[in-house]
């Protein structure tokens, strides 16, 4: 397990990352969400040791992470790029060798991955001759060879077409299944919701919410949706509720006092027909807006 | 499994990328062609024999021209004179204009006139002047009842000099400046390439992936060493071709005197080059894009100019002092060695000083390099880079 505790980093007077702690358990995907400038990239850079932390620690399997550990982590920085003029196989082998792999092993593994990504015939092409999507694939391979002990990926899905997103998602799941802790950041909240076992939400340098999707939803406010035969305007007068929205026969309410929703339902049936009454499970994007507001 | 040190992997990539780069190959071939061409031209013009067709239009001048032809090889072994008969002065002028003959010799009131189309070649002039003087002197001496030998007896001036051989001194001078020029251009050329390859990694952002995997000191070391191997390899090829070429010309007598100094030059070149490379790497790290490189490398190009002009203009005490001050010593000490004005222990002291300076500079450069490398927002000043936190 990879674990971050109390990480803090200032740039001048600005605190970019403020006392950030979260675990990245083995065998699962951890999604890292937050707006631009929330501190995700700075946190990931500190995890990888590219940026020094002013406070806090990163631990790996229970001990403070070392350079040797990090050398085995697959990393995809937010600002990416490889050598534009070097053939892709050559530069991937070079990067793998920097991370301690022998040239022959690197060549073999990279060739397999290039074939899997449909780039098997282009190993000798310089990177700049590839389309942006294919360049992104090469970048992913750079993070996956040698077989990573952990994966730290900053925006791995940005710039990918839907097919590539699916392939990427499969790949991350595969690694997670093999017991590799995977943390990745993304702006695509629904994708994160669909993929991740755990979520870490950052805003203004701090972690504002974290946990599994279920946990986050359980923490979110209790909401009900009501559809009546007649006008729903009277709902505003029921105590213990916050009305989020009313239009014609429909209303959505948030429960402030326990049991208020039962009183609402009783009142509704006494006034006429009730066409629908159900609990609203908030989408992650809604929770996100709530916790980052 | 024992893995290869990181700097070696980096250096190997630098070398592999460079030697397969078309512009490097073309540059090397052109440079070799220039060296071979220059030496070939020198050898050719040294050994070239020239034949001049000199015309006469009277029996007096025929005797004179034939006399010159007889003596020409005594005066200059590479010059041959071929007498050619013409009808008169007009015919001679016409033949000159048509370039059928090279010169027309005829007597006039004060002696003789050599008519040529344009300015006469110095070889032709020398031979004609000396031969005519000798022939006339002999004639006049006989008319006066004596001999030329009698007349010129005791007038010979032998040349002797205390300080070495003047021709060797000239060669030392030329070789010294040639080495300074080679150092200057190699530093600029390879330095720029190094700075470019640093900024390329920064601009393409790959450096962040490398930084996550290996210590930046190893990256810096690998890049500098790889670059130095290429530079020194290329220099060795040039020096070897140059020396072999030189040995084929008439200047070959200078080789034994120079080979020690050239050996020192290679050592100083290597150390000085590595020291300057660290500065070039910093210049690359301070830039964010290739376009910034011009301005971020200004301080080092200025330093190189100072070194270069120092090498050209310093002499006497200034040269001796300069030959100890790093990095100026990287150029001046080898030049003094070529000149033969440095004692055997002097290059050793200068080299130790240069190495110490280099170690200090590398430490400084490493800090600047590793801090500036991840800053991608525009060009950094040295001061700003120094203050950056890791």
Furnish the topology, listing elements before pairings:
The complex is a heterodimer of chains A (293) and B (390).
Chain A: E1 2-11, E2 14-24, E3 29-34, H1 40-48, E4 55-60, E5 63-64, H2 67-71, E6 73-76, H3 88-98, H4 103-116, H5 132-144, E7 150-153, H6 162-177, E8 182-185, H7 189-195, E9 198-203, E10 206-212, H8 213-219, E11 223-228, E12 241-247, E13 250-255, H9 260-271, E14 274-280, H10 284-292
Parallel strand pairs in A: 3-8, 3-9, 6-7, 7-8
Antiparallel strand pairs in A: 1-2, 1-4, 4-5, 9-10, 11-13, 11-14, 12-13
Chain B: H1 6-19, H2 22-47, E1 50-56, H3 59-75, E2 79-85, H4 89-97, E3 103-108, E4 111-115, H5 122-143, H6 148-152, H7 166-203, H8 206-213, H9 216-248, H10 255-286, H11 293-296, H12 298-313, H13 317-322, H14 329-339, H15 346-372, H16 382-387
Parallel strand pairs in B: 1-2, 1-3
Antiparallel strand pairs in B: 3-4
Helix pairs in contact in B: 1-9, 2-9, 3-5, 7-9, 7-10, 7-12, 7-14, 9-10, 10-14, 10-15, 14-15
